[in-house]
From TrEMBL:
Native source organism of the sequence: Candidatus Viadribacter manganicus
Official protein name in the record: Peptidase
Peptidase M14 domain residues: 28-302
Keyword tags: Hydrolase, Metal-binding, Zinc
Protein's UniProt keywords contain Hydrolase: yes
Biological-process GO terms, alphabetical: proteolysis
Cofactor: Zn(2+)
Molecular function GO labels: hydrolase activity, acting on ester bonds; metallocarboxypeptidase activity; zinc ion binding
Amino acid sequence: MASAFPIGVAGRAWGERERAQWRATQKNRRSYQADVVSRIEALSDRFERIAYGEITYADEAYTLYALRSRVVRPALPNVLVTGGVHGYETSGVFGALAFLDEVAGEFSDRVNLLAAPCVSPWAYERINRWNYDAIDPNRNFRSDGPREATALIELVRSFAGDYLLHIDLHETTDSDETEFRPALSARDGNAFEPGEIPDGFYVVADTADRQLEFQKAIVAAVEQVTHIAPADAKGEIIGSTVIAHGVIEYPLAELSLCPSITNARFKTTTEVYPDSPRATPEICIRAQVTSVRAALDFALEA
C-alpha cells in the first residue's frame, strides 16, 4: 500500500533519513524577528523582557523571549499566558501580543503576569506544527522534551511556584486535516484516519479538574466575537466528547500538554478556527484577547 504522505513508507515509522527529507520541504515563509521580536521589544517599556532560552537548529539560532510584570508582588496571584506553542497557529502569537498591548495594563495591580507569546519560533517561520526535529512540542512538555518545551518549563518555575491561571492560545486549522495529521500518521507508521475540522471556537478543559464554569465563561465571552464550534454527529469535537457548549476535555498531564506545566487552578487551551468563511485574522485575534480577559475576570472573582 502506498503511503498517503509523500515522505516515508506506509506502516514504517520515520528514521533520520525521512526527517531530513521532511525538513528539506520546510521553507522560511515569515520572520520571527520582524513579526514577533520587534513587537516584544516595543512592549519592553511596560514589561520586563526576558530572554529565557536559545534554540539552535543547523545554522539558525532563535532567542526565546517572554514578558513579565515589571514589579512582582508576592501578595498577588500569578498568571501565565502562552502562545505559538504550535508555530503555525498565528492568532495564538498575535493574540498574546495584542492582550499585552491593549488589555494587560488593566490587571497590573491585580496579578503578576508572565507571557511567552511565541514558544516555537522555528515553526512560526515555517508555518508548521512541529519543530526542526519533527516533534510536536505540545505533546512533550516534560523534562526530556524538546528545548521549546523545557526552556518554557524552566522559565515558568523560575517565575513562581504557584499559579492561579494558565491560558494557552491555539488554533484548529484546515491544514490539521490536509497536512499535519497525515504527516503525523506517516511519521509514526500509522494509517491515516480522516477526521473533521470543527467550524468555530472551542476550549479544552483538564479531565482531572474541569473547572467547567470557568470554561463556560470564556466561551460565553468569545461568543460575542465569533461563533462557537458545534458538536459533530457523534457529539464530539476533534474526537473528544463535548461536555458543555464549546468545551471538550483532555488529560493534560498525561498528554504532556502545555497547560500541565503549572499547578494553576484555572487552566485552559483556546482553539479558534481561522479558515471559517465567518472569520478573519482580526476576528481570531479578538477572540484570543477576549478569552484571556474573560479567563482573568473569572479567576480573580472566583
